[in-house]
Write a structure and sequence with these properties.
Elements: H1 2-7, H2 14-21, H3 25-32, H4 35-59, H5 64-75, H6 83-94, H7 100-126, H8 135-155, H9 162-177
């Protein structure tokens, strides 16, 4: 992750990585078979760490809305060239030509993010903190919105910094979920 942050994945070579970790590029290729596999495993490792953070935030006290905002905060990149999002972008780009197994592993990562969000939305709906929505459908749409905005932040698109994006998402959540009035 440090090398991806410093150089970007396009300049990450097996030889340079091997030198940094004290292994030959041949040893790296023995364990990872390809740069794509190395990047995918690094993404899985990074997502495991984020998954543990998500689990902590989803089980903490507070309203579903507060936890939803924490989920969004964790989801959106810290800024231009955020290493986790830079890695995502590279893996997505390479997945066009990847084996089915690699795409299945990406889908498993996406599925974990999705399930956590669905559970949080379902809780908010059941407690009448959110307007009645289909949690699965709303989660799919919200994640698409977050992915699109996150790409803008990660690539450094002018006029789309993290604070602006978080403001847009909060506004979307206010408009879409609101608060259901009790009869």
């Amino acid at each position: 992750m440090r090398m991806i942050a410093e150089r970007g994945p396009e300049k990450l070579t097996m030889a340079a990585l091997g030198r940094a970790v004290g292994m030959s590029s041949g040893h790296l290729l023995y364990y990872f078979h390809s740069k794509h596999e190395l990047l995918l495993r690094t993404l899985e490792w990074s997502e495991d760490r984020l998954g543990a953070e998500r689990a902590r935030l989803l089980t903490r006290t507070g309203t579903a809305r507060e936890r939803l905002e924490a989920y969004v905060d964790l989801y959106v990149p810290d800024g231009h060239r955020d290493p986790h999002w830079t890695l995502w972008l590279e893996v997505w780009n390479r997945s066009q030509n990847a084996a089915d197994d690699a795409r299945d592993r990406q889908a498993a990562i996406e599925g974990a993010r999705h399930r956590d969000l669905v559970a949080l939305l379902a809780e908010g709906v059941s407690k009448e903190e959110f307007r009645a929505v289909d949690p699965d459908r709303f989660a799919a749409r919200l994640r698409a919105l977050l992915d699109g905005f996150s790409i803008h932040v990660a690539i450094g698109l002018r006029g789309t910094d993290r604070d602006q994006i978080l403001s847009h998402v909060r506004e979307f959540l206010d408009e879409s979920l609101g608060r259901q009035r009790r009869s």
